[in-house]
Every structure is written in C-alpha cells, then in structure tokens.
Amino acid sequence: MKIALINENSQAAKNELICNTLKQVVEPMGHTVYNYGMYSAEDPAVLTYVQNGILAAILLNSGAADYVITGCGTGAGAMLASNSFPGVLCGLVVDPSDAYMFAQINDGNAISLPFAKGFGWGAELNLQYIFEKLFLGEPGQGYPKDRVIPEQRNKKILDGVKEVTHRKLVDILNELDKDLVKGAIAGEKFQEYFFANCKDEEIAACVKALLA
Fold this sequence. Notes:
By secondary structure, the protein is α/β, with parallel strands linked by helices. It is 50% helix and 10% strand.
C-alpha cells in the first residue's frame, strides 16, 4: 500500500516526528510512506488544511496513493476539506480505538489527526498505537462482529451517495482558484512522487497543465 503523509502549515514542525513514527509502524507491514510535506515550519511550499484536502483528493483519485494520513490543529478542518472531494472518505481519529473502528466500520481511505489539541506528553506513543490499529488486518470487517452485515451494507450505501453528490475531480480542479490548487501541488517532492505513481492519465494531464 502507498501511504501519503500531508501536513499543513500550523503543525509542519512535527512532520519529521509523524513521518518517522508512521514509517516505524507500516514499513514492516510492507507498506511504503510518501511524505508530501510540509517538511518544516520554514518550508516555502505552504499548505493550508484546505490544500491538504485538495492534495489528498488528487493522490487518492489518481491512484498515486492508496491511503492518506493528514491533519491540522484539531483535525477537524483537514477532515472537512478532504471529505469535500470525490473519492475521499476521511475520518477524524483522536485515539487508537477511533483508528480501529474507523478502519473496520467505515473502511475509509484517509484519516485526519489533531496535531495540536491534546498533542502533549506521550504524543508519539499515541501516534504509534493509532497507526498500528489503523492498519491492523483487513479493513471493513465490522465492529462488533454481530454488526458486520449492516455496517458493510451502510458503507456501500454511503459510497453510492458520494457518487451521486460529487462531481468529477478534474472538473473541480479546473474550476477552483488556480493559485489555490497550484499551491497544493507545489511541494518539493510532489512531482517526483506523483508522476511515478499516478495511474490516471486524465488527472496527470490536468496536474501537468496546472504546473506549467
């Protein structure tokens, strides 16, 4: 699995800690982490939580990433921004039980974490346990086990609703403010990671036009 990490400006100083913790957990599982920044508080490619959502949508819809780890001060903004787009199902995760139940009940493809609120002593341990529970076993298996059938049915219903209520991503990108979108894909490693892993030619062409 290709897992993308995206940090916004207010919590960019924690990128290295978050990335190292994520790699420690998921690389032994056979997953690969792609750190899309921001890499530090001084990173010239500045991301807002809204741009986190734009970048998450580009990565997930194009197949350049299979899962996105993002967040902001409270986690709420990055979650809302991510869920504004088609092809993204992002949960707000505060603790390991949130991570496990989101994976098993909602079977999403992104989480948003609070990197300021409650991020104190032992924060790296909480992150470690969250990532362990998030990627534990096969997702979408239900919790508790006697709720498997209705939960899986509800997930399919939600996926169907999102198909109706969301438009094509390329159309959205072309109608958004160009500077806003270009800022979301301006990271130092974006082009290297994205074009090597993108599976959608239409989204790739759209991104190339935006970068030109």
